[in-house]
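Q: what sequence does this backbone want?
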């Protein structure tokens, strides 16, 4: 996937570029190529980026440690402000920063790397808790382990009395 030169994007028809994606993304370990569409529109002082894409990844279940395939899909959009970078450090090592300063920015004469942006969006979509669809409920696993290990060290017995409440 080629980077988009921002000044050239501003001169394109409707200041928009639509990229059909069907390829593997570097450093994203997937079984299938990432497939979808990324639309980048130059809006004068910012870029409007929208994407719909999907792929399949192999994840390891946190409960059973078995591997399973997971369909990773995104429907993302982001505004990226175009402004010249500041010279030197703008902030001290420790300083309060306004919320509006925490924005993605690119130089107006620079490039927008579609592959990196897509990698970031897909990485954020990977589930934090990786639970296989056929994994048993957590209560079943705890009951099994309790019945197996009757000779538990008494110092750990207090942990056995704790109840785990499922928030689902």
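A:
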């Amino acid at each position: 996937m080629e980077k988009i030169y921002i000044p050239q994007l501003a001169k394109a028809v409707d200041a928009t570029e639509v990229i059909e994606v069907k390829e593997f993304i570097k450093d994203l370990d997937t079984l299938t190529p990432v497939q979808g569409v990324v639309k980048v529109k130059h809006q004068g002082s910012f870029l409007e980026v929208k994407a719909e894409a999907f792929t399949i990844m192999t994840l390891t279940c946190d409960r059973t440690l078995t591997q399973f395939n997971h369909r990773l899909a995104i429907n993302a959009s982001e505004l990226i402000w175009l402004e010249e970078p500041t010279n030197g450090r703008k902030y001290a090592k420790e300083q309060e920063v306004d919320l509006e300063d925490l924005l993605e920015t690119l130089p107006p004469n620079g490039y927008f790397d579609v592959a990196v942006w897509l990698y970031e969006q897909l990485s954020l979509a990977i589930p934090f808790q990786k639970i296989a669809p056929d994994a048993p409920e957590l209560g079943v696993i705890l009951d099994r382990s309790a019945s197996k290990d009757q000779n538990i060290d008494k110092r750990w017995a207090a942990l056995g009395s704790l109840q785990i409440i499922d928030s689902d």
